[in-house]
Amino acid sequence: MGVNIRSAPRAEAAHEPRISRRTVLTGSGAALVVIALGSTRRADTRGVFDPAGGQAFAPWTDWQAEGQDVPIALVSAAILASNAHNAQPWLFRVQDTSLDLFEDTSRSLGSLDPFGRELHIGLGCALENLLLAAPANGYEHKLLLGPDPADPGHVATVALSPGRAEETELYSAIPHRHTNRYPFDTSRPVSNSSLTTLGALNDEPDVRVHWFTSRAERDRIHELLAGAAADINADPEQSYDNGPRWLRQDKQSIEHHRDGLTLDTMGLAAAAVLAAKMLPDPGPEEAGRAWLASVHEQAGTAGAFGILAVRDDRDRAQRIRVGRIWQRIHLWTTVNRLAAQPMNQLHERADREAQLGLRPEYGAALEELLGDPGWRALFTFRIGHPTQQAPPSPRRPVPRVLTT
Ligand SMILES: Cc1cc2nc3c(=O)[nH]c(=O)nc-3n(C[C@H](O)[C@H](O)[C@H](O)COP(=O)(O)O)c2cc1C
């Protein structure tokens, strides 16, 4: 998964001042140049001055607001979870002593996720946050993974009862966890002890964590990711679902949708973000090329890659357990000042091959990478030392994700 970015002008609107891409990219004086040219209104509507301001980002600061009923406090934590393309494919039913989680398939990633793999992993991430929030709010929980035979969209029931209050460091990290798409610091390898501790966060017998740390392994995954990203670009449906479908380019659309991917979260250098916000939209081909370049940079600076594998990649409960482990891993990296980013292009192409009956090029590559007969690769990510802190992404507020 990833996103096509706005990187260069296609045509200049008549009322825009003439600002060339080069002018904007000249470095730290860029903002001054743009403002001096009289584009403050555009800068404002594009969120240049206050990228993480506005109600769309309030759930990151309000998540522990005083006076919330306990089940609502748990949902406030759940909605801050990692989820593919920030589509937020979840709905919650809140009762006095229990919560139910449902999938919202209207928020599927379509051709990028034809079998619901990413959708279910994201639900697992939300469930993990929710379960971390239960003891922090003084509740014990009992988890029952669905579905309810009467409702295939029902994913899980969490029964709550008063218990010992316990606030873990993973729980406290919930509002600080953000996907980091910047290059990582290649001068600092991820220590073996970090990888061992991360692996030990997996307590599910039907999930395995595989690490790829050697130069040769990382180069091989880099090469595969670049190939898969190019193939996504070349597939018109996947290219649309990867880019324009979930891209929120300006403040108004961020505030309206409160989901999706924003220019600020794409890991671009500050001057490039400014250029992307201020200049007219690029065409799809140029946007695709820019996205490919960022996948190259991200994959090329991974400290390590991890792949989460399961016995049966079509089993919803196993996917949800992978989501729980990924969320836990990402929270642990947050506590320990490491950076992390899912990179799911290989799986997205493998699923697409299966959907269209194509030769399983990426399916076979994943099997070969894993080299673990009887296990199926479900989710890939990179970790490393950050070069920059990642910003938050928008979230729909709790009332918008409640159902009856
Ligand atoms: C199943 C799944 C797949 C994802 N795949 C990618 C990916 O391929 N590339 C990427 O940059 N982020 C990927 N992400 C991260 C999401 O885009 C990210 O969690 C979402 O935009 C919300 O942002 P946040 O994690 O900063 O809160 C994935 C997340 C999940 C759960």
How would the blueprint of this fold be written?
Layout: H1 21-24, H2 30-36, H3 40-45, H4 58-62, H5 70-78, E1 90-94, E2 98-103, H6 117-136, E3 139-145, E4 154-162, H7 169-172, H8 192-200, E5 207-212, H9 215-234, H10 236-242, E6 247-248, H11 251-257, E7 261-262, H12 270-278, H13 284-300, E8 304-310, H14 316-335, E9 339-342, H15 345-356, H16 361-370, E10 376-384
Parallel strand pairs: 6-7
Antiparallel strand pairs: 1-2, 2-4, 3-4, 5-8, 8-10, 9-10
Helix pairs in contact: 5-6, 6-14, 9-13, 9-15, 15-16
Flavin mononucleotide (FMN) is lined by residues 1-2, 82-86, 118, 121-122, 125, 178-179, 181, 261, 341-345, 379, 393.
Ligands (ions, cofactors included): flavin mononucleotide
Task: Tally the helices.
Answer: 16
Major sheet attributes: 4 strands, antiparallel
| Share of helical residues | 40-55%
Which CATH class is shown? Alpha Beta
Q: Which fold name fills CATH's third level, the topology?
A: NADH Oxidase
Number of strands: 10
The CATH architecture name reads 3-Layer(aba) Sandwich
Straight-line distance between termini = 32 Å
What is the assembly state of the chains in this entry? Answer: single chain
How large is the share of residues in beta strands?
5-15%
- pLDDT averaged residue by residue: 89
**CATH homologous superfamily classification:** NADH Oxidase
Give the total of domains. Answer: 1
Question: Your description of this structure?
Answer:
With 404 residues, this protein is of the alpha+beta class. The chain has one domain: NADH Oxidase (3-Layer(aba) Sandwich), CATH 3.40.109.10. It has 16 helices and 10 strands. The protein has a 4-stranded antiparallel beta sheet, with helices on one face. Mean pLDDT is 89; it is low at 1-38. Bound molecules: flavin mononucleotide.
